[in-house]
Amino acid sequence: MFMNSILNNSMKELVVVIPVYNEEEVIGKVVADWMNVLGSLKVSFTLALYNDGSVDDTEQVLKVLKQNNENIQVYSHKNIGHGPTILKGYLAYDEAEWVFQVDADNEISAAHFKKLWEIRNQYDFIAGYRDSNSRNGIRRIITQLTRAIVTVFFGAGVKDVNVPYRLLRMEKFTTKIKTINKNTFAPNIIISGIAVKNKLKIKNIPVANQQRKTGTVSIQKWSLIKACFTSFSQTISYALANK
Q: Which of 6, 78, 145, 163 is most enclosed, with most CB atoms within 10 A?
């Protein structure tokens, strides 16, 4: 039954993959915003919510949101991390025409999505990019370093290589995404590299980014720096192994 549900939804025109961790305060608003935006576009869609082992009441909130709404699918698993959770979503819906990935923290509003969706037929990969001034110092530096690494090892073309606001034409990505290790810390960086290396049609769209107001920031300060070295290493290793 579970596999049939995924298969049926994967055939939809659009799947929005949202990893969720300890977002009980804001996830209701996030889901409502996305349902309104997608409903207004008259698109056949699935909102795929992946509860990554939340320890607050997120799971219960998601169950309520799912009730009597065939456009919402909820999956819960033990905590495996943001990156591996994203990969689960991409791979589960790899037969969808389009997959969009966004985070559950409401830092980038659903309101921007229409800009990406309206031009989709001209591109294979449409990525938002955040104003660097809206991010704190260390995150701004990490964003610049990550883009530099992708440019050196894959090529230039994506401004915000790890942005959680990206629309993928799945037929162009499915085979390559399957080559990414399921435990990769930041697979979106590698996916940006894949888009550039394979000379896909790429478009960068500016999106407003606001600071998180609720929920849990799972990576802070020194752990953030360690996580970045991990993602840098994994990205470079993937690039070298897939020349």
A: 163
